[in-house]
Amino acid sequence: MKLDDQQQQREAEESRRTTWRRLRRMGSPRWTRANVLAAALTVALGFAIATQIQQNQATGLQGLRQDELVRVLDDVNQRAARLDQQVRELEAQRDSLTSGADTAAQAAAQAQRRVDQLGVLAGTLPASGPGIRLTIADPAATMKSPLLLDVLQELRDAGAEVVQVGGVRVVASTYFSDVGGSVTADGEALPRPYVFLAIGDSKTLASAMQIPGGIVDTARRQNGSATVEELKTVSITATRTPKTPRYATPVPEPTVGAGQ
Predict the structure, then answer these.
(1) Domains parsed from the chain with CATH numbers
(2) Which segments of 70-190 are extended strands (E)?
């Protein structure tokens, strides 16, 4: 190899090494004042976010008042009790159907009971049972539809199975609105005082209406009053004619063997 060729090769090799050193310097982080400040801000922001998340999780219930905590606990207990009752009823039906004794007759009887239950829930059949009568006096005519909606929601949360307000049977689509100086339920004006009839566990329903911050307190704050009567038998006679849904349609049950 000629001397000139060797010299050119050494120069090319040195040039490659110089180029790689420059690339490594360009790719390595430079701890300038701006970089240090940005890193410190990033760490501080992450710490603040983590601290806020922990505080939100820890104070989810701590920020509630005592009456609100009582209501939350009461709702949880009532829902748990209703679910337990439903489980027991379904297990009893299952055991009855699988016992093998007159299964067809039992199935027919249970089907009829189910139809009756659905009729009561849908408001197409009268109903009776234990419950309460809630009377809300509004002498100054200051109470509006949101209050009656709150009453209905409290009754449902407390386990009311059937509700009637004034002469209106409450169903899933029931709504309240303010028209002039009156409150209407499903478009029908409600007379004062407002009277709710509710079927369910009378003690539970009455307690839900009278807890601190509940309907009785709310009515008093609005210059009215609310009285609760526990009754052994509440007769709800108002019924509804079912309407055909305009948009919703049932989902067909899957065919046996479909997808196989």
Answers:
(1) 122-236 (3.30.70.1880)
(2) 127-137, 162-165, 168-169, 176-179, 182-185, 188-189
